[in-house]
Every structure is written in C-alpha cells, then in structure tokens.
Amino acid sequence: MGIEDASMRNGRALSDQWADSVVVRPRTTEQHITVHKRLVLGFAISILTLIIVTAIAITLSVSFERCAAESSGALAANSSSNSKWKQSRDGNISHRDSEDGQQPWRHLRLPATLRPRHYDLRLSVYMENFTFSGEVNIEFECVHSTKLIVLHTDRLEVEKVLVYSDSKKAGAMRIQRRFHYQPKQVYVIALHREMKPLRTYKINITFHAHIEHELLGFFRSSYVLNGERRFLAVTQFSPTHARKAFPCFDEPIYKATFRVSLKHESSYQSLSNMPVEASTSDEDGWVTNHFSRTPRMSTYYLAWAVCNFTYREAVTDNGVVIRLYARPDAIQSGSGDYALHITKRLLQFYQDYFKVKYSLPKLDLLAVPKHPYAAMENWGLSVFVEQKILLDPEVSSFSYQMELTMVVVHEICHQWFGDLVTPVWWEDVWLKEGFAHYFEYIGADFLFPKWNM
C-alpha cells in the first residue's frame, strides 16, 4: 500500500497531519489595536451615514410642505371669481411675507395684529340640497401695523373679498394677493399697503359651503314623523368649528358682538342666540329672520338652527322666556316638560346664588336627534341630544331622570360660567368646564335636597 492507504487505516488523512504540525501564534498588541481602530472607524462611518440620510429626509419633507402650500395657494387663486389672471399669477409665487420674511399663516395661533369688534353675518340656507351661501362683514381694529389679514376658514369656498378703511378715502383697499392655507385652516389676504394701529377697518367676504353630515360646524340631522323623513340643520362650534360655517377669528380670546340673519324656506323656522328682531317674507315663499345683536362673546358660543320643530314655553318671574324645541310628536307627548320645568327653577336659583342676573332676554333648549356631545351651552340656544333632555315620566327610571337632570343643570350653570360673567383674560375652556361641574352639584342639590350628593 502507499502512504495514503496507511494513513487512512489509522483514521487520519495527510491534511490532518499537516494541521497538527501548524503552530498557531497569538496576536500581538499592535494587531489588537489595528482591529479596534477598524471597528471604531466602521461605527463612526455608520453614524455619519445615518445623520446624512436624516438631514436629506428632513430637507425633502420641508420642500414638499412648501410645494404643497404653494400649490394650495395657486388653486385658491385660480378658483377666485374676480381677477382670475392676477390670482393665478400670484398663486405661482411662493408665499413670502413682506414683514421681516415671516409667514404668520404657518403658526398655530393667529397673529395678534388685528382684533375683531363686530360680525354682521347673513346666510341663505338651502335644505333641499344641503348647501348654504353667506356674506360676512367683520369690523376689526388694527393693533400693530400689518399688511396681512389672517382668518380661519375650513371647507368654505371664498368667492369675493373686499377690505375697507375707516378713513375718509372712499373705495376698497387694493389686495395684492389672497390664498387659503389648508394645513392651519386659515385664509390670508395680503394688502398693497399697511393698515395703521388704532384704526378700524372692515372686511367683506362672500362664500358658500355644504351643510355637512358630520356632527361639527353647520351640520344636518334628521328624524321620521308619520313615516316621513324630515331634516334640520344646526351648529356645533365648540371648540374650533365656527370656521366651518363662516370666516372668522376662531379663537376664544377674540371676542366680538354678532348680528345674524338667516334666510330659508317658510316651511322651516330659524333660531339663534338672540330673539328675532325683524322678519321679512319674499314672494317666492322664503323668509328672512334678523336676530338681535348679541353680547360680546367668543365665536364658539355663537349658534343657529333651521328646523321644523314645535315648542313649549315657560316664563320666569324676571320675564325670561324659556322655550324647549323638539320633534312635534315629542312636544305633544310632553317628553320635554320635565326639562322645561327644572330649567325655569334653575334660572331663578342661579341668579340668587351668584347675585348676577341672567344676561339674555330668552333661553331656548333645542333637542336634536344626533349631536357630538350630550349638550352644548350656547348662550340663549343650548343644544341637547334627545336622550339627554326628553323623557317619558311614566316609563323612565329614576336613575335616567337623575342623569338627565345633571346634564340640564350643567348647561344652565354654563350660562353664568362663560364670557358674560368670567373675566376677559380667562380663556381656559376646560377651567370653565371644571367650575360648571362643581356648581352643577349645587344646582342638583337645590332640585333634590334630600338626595345624598
């Protein structure tokens, strides 16, 4: 046999013998240092690559946002009914603010350069196709010199904008450009010349929009009566949804007075915070209700409704008219009588408790089939979901009656814990809510003194 055969008999090949003859020499200190340097260098390169990729991603996202804003401005300008060629030209220009290069429409809060004083709002409501058109005149004061008017709008199609000065110079001020910035739900009007501090200006805006099905802004709801589906439209502006119904300074700190006019088919009736001051009828079967001027308040307390409800009425000793509006069958069955009765008692109780008179001439309670909350304390027109204000005394349990009572007491208490009574600087909505929760138990204890609170 050859060498290979002898090796195989012993179970070991030549390669194994060669491996046994190899002497493994340990690494020197210099070799260890070299390996560590390579590991550190590789780790540093990985970190540097990660930083570069992150910086590129941030740069691309910022560029994308800028392009999106410019595109939205161009679309808003192209949709304008007047000066279409000029708006299209301005829409293609990047939105650069002439005031130190700032862009206040990108900020979370409105700039503190303007302060509204009064809104004159006129709406036409079309219930057959659930749309509405409007015109708002806003009187505002300039606090700091500026060329920009920044308002809140959301889902509104702005048609025409005019700005007037209180100076003796007649005619509208020249508008350089205007556009909608959707990320912050604002509409920006850039004037050709600056507005001066301590002077009053007016802006006129015409617009139109849909009465949405979602339960925010100016929305629609429905119910069935005698096999027929009927529709109504009502508002829910708290906390920041007035901008869905009309252009406005939609932050609680911007308080103003409001005068509302609602035009609709005569088969409907309309409600708002204040009583109807005048009503006019057209030959085409439409009616326009002009409501009295409201006290100074925030936009989220403004409210109106267009419906075909009926009501029951009560009058307090001080002459405040209380009406509960609901479906005709609910009113006829007396489902709202309990809430109407305790509301009358509560108004008198809270007036005596706070030593502050109820500030409005009337209070309407509106029971709607659907609502995003249990209720909303709009001044003079509190809106409730039906389940929290209507009950059948012969069927409803005591616990259900107590739950309904607490909701009504809470909203009536809010007629005091709002802008009418609380200080001007107090803008924390949740703080007002907390105080109302505290005093609702006092009101409930007044209604049920033997109830262990």
Helical region count? 8
Strand content: 25-35%
Uncertain segments are 1-27, 29-33, 68-101, 420-426
Q: What is the H/E string? A: HHHHEEEEEEEEEEEEEEEEHHEEEHH
Judging from the principal axes of the Cα atoms, what is the shape? globular
Strand tally: 19
- Span between termini: 109 Å
Largest sheet: 7 strands, mixed
Strand order of the largest sheet: 4-7-2-1-10-13-12
| Helix percentage range | 25-40%
Return Rg in Å. 34 Å
Class of secondary structure makeup = alpha+beta
Describe this structure in words.
Pfam families: Peptidase_M1, Peptidase_M1_N. The chain crosses the membrane at residues 39-62. Residues 338-453 form the Peptidase M1 membrane alanine aminopeptidase domain. This protein is an alpha+beta fold. The protein has eight helices and 19 strands. It has helices spanning 3-9, 14-21, 29-78, 84-91, 328-333, 337-354, 398-414, 429-447, and strands spanning 114-126, 131-142, 146-152, 157-165, 175-181, 186-195, 200-210, 217-225, 228-236, 257-265, 269-272, 276-281, 286-291, 304-307, 310-315, 321-326, 362-368, 375-376, 381-385. The strands form four sheets. A seven-stranded mixed sheet has the order 4-7-2-1-10-13-12, with no helix packed on it. It has a five-stranded mixed sheet with strand order 15-16-17-19-18. A hairpin with a 4-residue loop joins strand 18 (375-376) and strand 19. Helix 3 (29-78) runs antiparallel to helix 4 and helix 6 (337-354) packs across helix 7 (398-414). The radius of gyration is 34 Å and the shape is globular. It starts with a helix and ends in a 6-residue tail after the last helix.
